[in-house]
Specification:
Elements: H1 3-11, H2 15-37, H3 40-56, H4 67-100, H5 108-124, H6 128-138, H7 144-151, H8 155-172
Helix pairs in contact: 1-2, 2-3, 2-4, 3-4, 4-8, 5-8, 6-8, 7-8
């Protein structure tokens, strides 16, 4: 079957065509993701997300789409987004760790209480949904995908909300962070 026929059947909602696309392109998608992410498990998740999105968008796919090219480019984009997300998260965790380090002087107890109050106030000032996602991430140690499933939102929404939370906390608690 030609790519055009396969795409036409896929656009029409043919599960067999989707299965054929999956069988043909999934291994290459995982390999491409693994090369970028250096983690086959995460690459498999990324590839599965791409195929899920391919199915969801099947009716709006352009008639001249090269399915293999689309899948590989989508895996590349999602893998790069994942890496960017990890960098943001690591920076944010560094900020939280810095905020939780003990203050080394005589008034350390007072400073620690002041810092804890400032952290609590900064978290309380977050928008409700952002605060909820932040607390699920930090207090219950849930992964972004778990938070997304629990709240019925996309992983992208969780990423955006947690990035916003960390940015606002950095801004609000900047006076407590060691300066450059």
């Amino acid at each position: 079957m030609s790519d055009a026929d396969l795409l036409s059947r896929l656009r029409a909602g043919d599960h067999g065509a989707f299965d054929a696309c999956f069988r043909q392109w999934y291994p290459a998608a995982v390999r491409a993701g693994t090369r970028l992410l250096r983690d086959e498990g995460v690459a498999e998740e990324v590839a599965q997300e791409v195929f899920l999105e391919l199915w969801r968008r099947r009716e709006s796919l352009p008639a001249d789409l090269a399915v293999g090219g689309y899948v590989l480019q989508a895996v590349r984009n999602r893998a790069l987004n994942h890496l960017r997300h990890l960098r943001v998260r690591q920076r944010g965790e560094g900020v939280v760790e810095q905020l939780q380090e003990p203050v080394p002087h005589a008034d350390a107890g007072a400073d620690a209480r002041e810092l804890q109050q400032a952290i609590a106030a900064a978290i309380a000032e977050l928008p409700p949904r952002t605060r909820e996602m932040f607390l699920l991430s930090r207090e219950r140690n849930l992964k972004y995908a778990e938070i997304a499933e629990l709240l019925g939102v996309s992983v992208k929404a969780v990423e955006a909300n947690l990035s916003r939370a960390l940015r606002q906390l950095r801004e609000r608690l900047g006076a407590f962070l060691p300066g450059p």
